[in-house]
């Protein structure tokens, strides 16, 4: 079983009630870097079972993801209790991504500045 969930499964995910940190990779099927990133994020997800990891194709999953504008692929969105802790592009460099996720998860609650409204809305939808 994969530790990297399709984003469509998140609204019904049983662990969301526990308020875990949620890490979402916003990608596109046509993006080669995203394809390289998927196994990296899968390994990170397996190493951090206390968090919930999801994969979203911004075109196929547009109904749930919304109209988020991305400057680059892949982009990570990290939430806790619906509040964004991080939103930004990432390369498939496992040690760097691991450090980024751990750092974001340790950040006190409160949305960082410059988070697009669409990302705030996604966090609210996932938090219920």
From TrEMBL:
Q: Which residues form the Thioredoxin domain?
A: 1-106
Cross-referenced Gene3D superfamilies, in alphabetical order?
Glutaredoxin (3.40.30.10)
Q: Which Pfam families match?
A: Thioredoxin
InterPro entries, from UniProt?
Thioredoxin-like_sf, Thioredoxin_domain
Name this polypeptide is given: Thiol reductase thioredoxin
Lineage of the organism: Bacteria, Pseudomonadati, Pseudomonadota, Betaproteobacteria, Rhodocyclales
């Amino acid at each position: 079983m994969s530790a990297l969930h399709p984003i469509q499964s998140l609204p019904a995910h049983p662990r969301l009630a526990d308020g875990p940190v949620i890490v979402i990779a916003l990608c596109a099927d046509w993006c080669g870097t995203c394809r390289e990133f998927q196994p990296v994020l899968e390994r990170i997800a397996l190493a951090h079972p206390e968090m919930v990891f999801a994969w979203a194709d911004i075109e196929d999953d547009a109904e749930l993801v919304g109209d988020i504008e991305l400057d680059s692929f892949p982009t990570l969105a990290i939430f806790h209790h619906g509040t964004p802790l991080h939103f930004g592009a990432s390369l498939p460099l496992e040690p760097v991504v691991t450090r980024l996720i751990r750092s974001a998860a340790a950040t006190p609650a409160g949305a960082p500045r410059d988070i697009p409204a669409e990302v705030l809305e996604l966090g609210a939808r996932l938090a219920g």
